[in-house]
Amino acid sequence: MVQIIVLMLLCYLQNSMLTQAKAQLLQGIQPTAGSGKAISQQETLLRNMAANANNTYSVLAQSLIAAHYAEPFDKKPLAPPKTSNSHNAKSASICLFPNPANTMVQIYMSVYNEDAPAQLYVADMQGRVINQLPLTQPQLTLQTAQYPNGIYMLCLKTANGAVYTQKLAVIR
Predict the structure, then answer these.
(1) pLDDT tens digits, residue range 114-171?
(2) Portions of the chain given CATH number 2.60.40.1220
(3) Whole-Å CA distances, 171 to 11, 25, 120
(4) Angle, CA of 13, 14 and 16, to the nearest 5°
């Protein structure tokens, strides 16, 4: 019985503290302009932040405004930035056969250049590099018998810094 009373008291205190934290966060934030009340510094800061270019902070600020003032959310997601190392997938690729693999996989690389050294990295889904191979020809046989079942990323890094990736599944 005492445990139940203690649990109820803890729940009450936790809810009370959450209510106080929300009140402190929103303290000074008034309804939107035109309501007859002055705009607080917090609201001005949020609105200025939301009006800036699409970035993480402007999206978060507009989310707060949308939630607190029931105003529409109008930010559009940004396209991923284009990098100088972007390559056309049709002109450069890594082909794996068979995929999923059992004991071995054939790797064909269309980006192979015998004058420029390249490395092939095999990484697990936690990002740990479990194998690293120098490329000496455009075709390579990778033995997968020692790899546990799972998904792996093959990463080809060329001498000029370009990186190409392909998923490999090992299933037995």
Answers:
(1) 777 788 899 998 888 999 988 888 888 999 999 999 999 998 888 888 888 889 999 9
(2) 94-170
(3) 48, 52, 21
(4) 65
Per residue in 109-124, is it b (16+ CB within 10 Å) or e — as a string? bebbeeeeebebbbbe
Closest-CA residue to 75 (of 88, 87, 60): 60
Residue identified by tokens 């729940």 is 11
Pull the structure tokens for residue 129.
């590099």
Query: Do 139 and 104 touch, CB atoms closer than 8 A?
Result: no
The CATH number that domain 94-170 falls under is 2.60.40.1220
